[in-house]
Amino acid sequence: MKSFWLCFVPLFVAVDAIGILPMYLSITEGLSRRHLRKVLLQSILTASVVAAAFLFVGQATFRLLGITVADFMVAGGVLLFVIALSDLLSTRNLQRQVEPDPATLGAVPIGIPLMVGPAVLTTILLLAEEHGRLPTLAAMTVNIILAGLIFGSSRTITRLMGKAGTRTFSKIANLILAAIAVMIVRKGILNFISG
Fold it and tell me: Rounded to two decimals, what is the model's pTM?
């Protein structure tokens, strides 16, 4: 049980469901309740499958391809930065021109890389080495379900905050996400130089 909590806390911080909630709201804006349910289910399933697969084959695949964790951190950080920057610079009119596709929206970008992104995947690798795969998998599953529950109550949160409050919070969260992306790239570069 101790191993589970030692895995749960870092993964809860890495998933950061509350922090990415404004992005989820922005991406799913205008979708019907039926489409939202489909998107939410797809995001939970995609995030769970990718996290579990990465947990069991991630390190072996990295070694086979000659990819280091530092390489992965740099690539993932750049991707996160691009996502955050595009949302920061977008306007309401631009977002309306591109309708989200409910068929793939839950998988990308909500399931991957928002729910399970480079920070989460890197954390999974480190925790599995330290505490084992089973506690890491259990903690990851619980965190993904919690994120799904938070996203599922997003409409209520939107009503409480109002549209202006949600949009403001979304822009601030994207700015923080961009800063986190830069931090991940920086750590990846430092790991590459030191290792």
Answer: 0.71
Q: Roughly how many angstroms between the first and final C-alpha of the chain, as a whole number?
A: 33
Cα-based torsion angle of the residue sequence 181, 185, 186, 187 in order, rounded to the nearest 10 degrees: 100
What's the Rg (C-alpha) of the chain?
A: 17
**Cα distance between residue 147 and residue 48, in whole Å:** 11
| Planar angle of CA 73, 41, 14, nearest 5 degrees | 30
State pLDDT tens for residues 65-110.
Answer: 888 878 877 887 787 788 778 777 776 543 444 455 667 889 988 9
CB 138 within 8 A of CB 55: no
Q: Which residue has the tokens 């997003």?
A: 154
Average pLDDT of the chain is 83
For 155-174, how does the pLDDT look when each residue is reduced to its tens digit (9 = 90+)?
787 778 777 776 777 777 67
**DSSP structural state of residue 98:** S
CA 150 to chain centre: 13
- Kindly list the domain boundaries of the chain, sorted by start residue: 2-194
The H or E element spanning position 31 is none
Residue with tokens 């601030």: 172
